[in-house]
């Protein structure tokens, strides 16, 4: 059975399946193994007319593999074969990009990618770089070295030195290549002529006027890749010089690069010993760099960089100063260590004590953390349970168990969002009765809790009101719950939902009755439950969902319209509807169904307590003139009688009634305007004026 000769791992972010893939070389074949299956890689032959291999199954000609590595971006695989060849193949295309034969078939001690452009192979004292173009480059070392791949190159570490090998950036090559006439090279040359007061500076600028922005960008990019401070300064001066003549270039690019280079130059100092490139710095992020400086005990530099980059606003720099002191003083009493920290921290502008308190809490010194938070001048930072940055959590009174103090600080700040944050945290951590006791004495917290719970947590709010003796508030919640239940589409046609609704209202009535101040609400809830029960019975008997949640008036009117006079009389009796109200309701209901015979019979049962005005109004509204004439003469009020005649267009009768009324002058004048074409009012004009 064949044994694997070498392995390589391809990270999941670079694979099509999204899973980790392991590349295994076994004999003449290479397998790709993931959690589901194992497949053999088949390679295509090299492209180009001068390819030495012309075979449909080129993959079989590679032979056994002694070493292999995957490129940093996962797109290429480098193989060192049994016969001393370096083969670079694309993982997706399976096309071979490089096929170079080495002088020795002895496998290299180390093999590493140098950025994304070339591969390094190391044998004793010999380091060879192989790229896609040209011959390989050899570097010789008198002592053993270790290759450390980076995102943009390789660090070469020996017993006496640390070197960084990378491909020359395109921007640097375009400027400093011998005989270069690129826009960036001409701009850099223009600055040199400008310093020597030569007119050739203007000539160079004219040549690159159309591509000046590109030249400025190249100078800035080249400056970022430089390690030599003098050359950085020269390139940035060239960029600033060209920027002055370019109107469409972002003005803050030079300042941003200067800020980055100042940080890089500071950490590249031999006393610090972190020689980062600009690409590595961007991938690392300033926050991680600050953490590394703290671990290296370069606290002052960490603080200065954080202040320079404005990181103190997030607390990262503050933690650099205070966190290390806390870690280094495990046996110092909290009170004494607090004095030491305050002496140091009060010298720093905009310091965040909360960030340092987080570190204290993480170190298990909760009492010290609580004392530090007390000195935080910004309530949100005292209270917030959130991360300040990706590597440094923001401390809070909540995170160290000081919920009472956190609630006081939040309410004093007046920030409702902050109060809600504390309330929700305590809500989850404390038993209900303890939580209720904490918020009861703080008006803002209590009101915010009640407002939120009314919409989202009504059952919990009932428990709160019961625990604080606010029985009437529980009753209101029950009553509202019954109305919400009535909005359910299923609450109709004898639905069983009406039973729970009635019980809720009755329970609310009982709770209201236990307080002297809510007698009216108790009686109203009792009558509401009674009405709902009657309406439920009516819907069940008529099989029509038209009664529930209507008023007493509408219930009576609907019963009469459905000719269910017995049910209407029952509702009248149950709710003590007055005779006047009853006459108005029944009159209009009979007119609605145009039962004029029943209406006339109803009018003759006894003398109506409302008079005959409801009968007249109902007939006129139904546009039944003949029916109205049965009742208009029975109106005892002459003004009402005249107005009724006028509404059905009988001018003479209206005028007669107005003339007979004691105060009918104004009414007659109005009739005259209404019936302006009728001469009857002219005959009444003079006699009437004489009377008045």
TrEMBL record:
GO terms for biological process: endosomal transport; intracellular protein transport; vacuole fusion, non-autophagic. InterPro entries: Haem_d1_sf (IPR011048), VPS16 (IPR016534), Vps16_C (IPR006925), Vps16_C_sf (IPR038132), Vps16_N (IPR006926). SUPFAM superfamilies: C-terminal (heme d1) domain of cytochrome cd1-nitrite reductase. Residues 351-669 form the Vps16 C-terminal domain. Residues 21-252 form the Vps16 N-terminal domain. Transmembrane segments: none annotated. This is Protein VACUOLELESS1.
């Amino acid at each position: 059975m064949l044994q694997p000769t070498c392995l390589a791992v391809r990270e999941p972010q670079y694979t099509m399946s999204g899973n980790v893939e392991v590349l295994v070389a076994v004999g003449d074949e290479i397998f790709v193994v993931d959690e589901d299956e194992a497949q053999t890689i088949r390679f295509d032959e090299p492209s180009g007319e001068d390819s030495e291999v012309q075979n449909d199954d080129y993959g079989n000609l590679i032979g056994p593999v002694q070493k292999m590595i995957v490129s940093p971006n996962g797109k290429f695989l480098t193989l060192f074969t049994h016969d001393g060849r370096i083969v670079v193949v694309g993982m997706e295309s399976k096309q071979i990009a490089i096929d170079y034969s080495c002088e020795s078939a002895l496998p290299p001690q180390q093999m590493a990618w140098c950025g994304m452009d070339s591969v390094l192979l190391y044998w004793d004292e010999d380091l060879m770089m192989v790229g896609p173009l040209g011959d390989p480059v050899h570097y010789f070392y008198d002592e053993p070295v270790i290759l450390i791949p980076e995102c943009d190159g390789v660090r070469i570490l020996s017993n006496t030195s640390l070197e960084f090998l990378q491909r020359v950036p395109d921007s640097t090559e375009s400027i400093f290549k011998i005989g270069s006439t690129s826009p960036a090279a001409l701009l850099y040359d223009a600055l040199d002529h400008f310093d020597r007061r030569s007119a050739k500076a203007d000539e160079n600028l004219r040549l690159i006027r159309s591509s000046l922005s590109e030249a400025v960008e190249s100078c800035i990019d080249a400056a970022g890749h430089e390690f030599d401070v003098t050359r950085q300064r020269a390139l940035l001066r060239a960029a600033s010089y060209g920027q002055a003549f370019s109107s469409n270039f972002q003005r803050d690019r030079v300042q941003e690069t200067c800020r980055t280079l100042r940080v890089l130059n500071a950490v590249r100092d031999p006393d610090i010993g972190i020689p980062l490139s600009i690409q590595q710095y961007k991938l690392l992020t300033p926050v991680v760099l600050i953490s590394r400086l703290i671990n290296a005990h370069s606290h002052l530099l960490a603080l200065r960089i954080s202040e320079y980059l404005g990181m103190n606003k997030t607390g990262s720099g503050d933690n650099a100063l205070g966190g290390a002191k806390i870690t280094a003083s495990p046996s110092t009493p909290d009170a004494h260590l607090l004095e030491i920290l305050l002496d140091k921290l009060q010298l720093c502008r905009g310091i965040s004590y909360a960030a340092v308190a987080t570190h204290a809490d993480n170190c298990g010194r909760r009492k010290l953390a609580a004392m530090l938070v007390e000195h935080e001048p910004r309530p949100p930072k005292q209270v917030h349970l959130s991360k300040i940055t990706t590597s440094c959590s923001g401390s809070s009174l909540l995170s160290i168990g000081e919920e009472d103090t956190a609630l006081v600080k939040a309410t004093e700040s007046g920030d409702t969002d902050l109060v809600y944050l504390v309330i929700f945290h305590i809500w989850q951590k404390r038993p209900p009765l303890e939580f209720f006791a904490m918020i009861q004495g703080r008006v803002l917290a209590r009101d915010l809790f009640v407002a939120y719970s009314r919409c989202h947590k009504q059952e919990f709010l009932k428990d709160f009101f019961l625990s604080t003796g606010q029985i009437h508030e529980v009753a209101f919640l029950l009553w509202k719950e019954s109305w919400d239940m009535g909005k359910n589409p299923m609450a109709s046609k004898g639905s069983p939902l009406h039973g729970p609704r009635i019980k809720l209202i009755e329970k609310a009535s009982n709770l209201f009755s236990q307080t002297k101040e809510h007698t009216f609400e108790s009686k109203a809830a009792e009558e509401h439950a009674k009405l709902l029960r009657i309406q439920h019975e009516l819907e069940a008997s008529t099989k029509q969902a038209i009664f529930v949640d209507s008023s007493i008036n509408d219930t009576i009117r609907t019963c009469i319209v459905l000719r269910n006079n017995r049910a209407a009389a029952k509702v009248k009796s149950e709710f003590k509807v007055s005779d006047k109200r009853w006459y108005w309701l029944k009159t209009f209901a009979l007119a609605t169904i145009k039962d004029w015979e029943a209406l006339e019979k109803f009018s003759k049962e006894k003398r109506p307590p409302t008079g005959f005005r409801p009968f007249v109004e109902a007939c006129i509204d139904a546009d039944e003139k003949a029916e109205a004439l049965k009742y208009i003469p029975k109106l005892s009020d002459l003004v009402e009688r005249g107005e009724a005649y006028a509404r059905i267009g009988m001018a003479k009768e209206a005028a007669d009634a107005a003339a007979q009324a004691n105060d009918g002058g104004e009414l007659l004048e109005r009739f005259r305007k209404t019936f302006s074409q009728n001469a009857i009012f002219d005959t009444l004009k003079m006699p009437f004026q004489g009377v008045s």
